[in-house]
Amino acid sequence: MTGPSTLTDPAVECPAGSPVTDLPEVIRHTMQNAVMVEAGSDALQAAIDHHFRSPGGYLRARLGYHTASALGIESHHAITVASISELLHNASLIHDDVLDRDTRRRGQASVWHQWNEGVAICLGDLFISAAFGLIAGLDTFASRLPPLITLVHEHVRATIHGQLSSLSPRLHASDRFRRYAEAARGKSGPLFGLALEAPLVLTGHHEARMNARHATGAFATIFQLADDIEDYDADMALDPEYGAGNMLRALERISSEPLPRARSYSDLLLARSQRLAGRLPAASGTALTDECDLLRTRIHGLTGASG
């Protein structure tokens, strides 16, 4: 097996019971270990190194880790659980770039553009496989691994259906904003949901899953709306009529004041997300509540709200 030299860096090790002082670095380390490839797979290893050279914010992993910790899961297992949803999210980004023909990702060339579609598809598939592989390390929760495996499959399947819905020409031609919101939730919601639901399943809190799912679904819808507001000009350049499914463009088609409408819609859904997150056991929804506050501030800045 081969991999980047940083995989053996003791500064990013996370022994059982040890506090995590640099969560993003430990998540990156865990993910890179999970996708290590056999010697001789030079192109794939180069693509792995390239992808991790420009990391994202690890939002799903951070939500998963803090949820797991609040529920009493030990730090090393919480890192593993958190990395599952983050690996799947990264797989979706790599595949999305192929579908959308995006040449840039996180300030550098997308994997398919740097190499080719085949390398990108294989890398995305590897990330998906690695997410399931991490589950094997959760042997402490052996009796709860079957429902966890089922849960991961369900959320991957839901993400795929959501992606297909967002690509539908019927959606882009629709004048119903609700369809755009449902597509956004369908594409982004499942992996946010998995970040919270996986720790709940491992700790036996099955009855709380629906609150977590609805809370993250509302959050994911507004997270996508914020991205669409930021990407408005680029999306309109691609599709001057429909904005390539951009949610702000959809609001323009039904409202003379789309930005205030986006702000009020966001306030409504984020309040709902926080209300549902507050019902989760052991205050395990606190991280999501905090992220809702940050997202609300972001939306207000994007829509020109004062105060």
- How much of the polypeptide forms β-strand, as a percent range? under 5%
**How many separate structural domains?**
2
DSSP helical segment count: 14
Helix content: 55-70%
Structural class: mainly alpha
Q: Return the CATH class of the largest domain.
A: Mainly Alpha
CATH superfamily of the largest domain: Farnesyl Diphosphate Synthase
**Approximate shape:** globular
- Largest sheet: number of strands, sense, barrel closure: 2 strands, antiparallel
SSE order: HHHHEEHHHHHHHHHH
Unreliable runs: 1-13
By DSSP, the count of extended strands is: 2
Question: CATH topology of the largest domain, anyone?
Answer: Farnesyl Diphosphate Synthase
CATH architecture of the largest domain: Orthogonal Bundle
Explain what the structure shows.
It is built from 14 helices and 2 strands. A hairpin with a 2-residue loop joins β1 and β2. The longest helix is centred in the first third of the chain and has 26 residues, at 75-100. 68% of the residues lie in helices and 1% in strands. It has 2 domains: 18-137, Farnesyl Diphosphate Synthase (Orthogonal Bundle), CATH 1.10.600.10; 142-307, Farnesyl Diphosphate Synthase. The radius of gyration is 19 Å and the shape is globular. α2 crosses α6, α7 packs antiparallel against α9 and α10 runs parallel beside α14 (286-302). It has helices at 23-34, 42-53, 59-70, 75-100, 111-114, 117-135, 145-166, 169-172, 177-202, 209-230, 232-238, 247-252, 258-277, 286-302; strands at 104-105, 108-109.
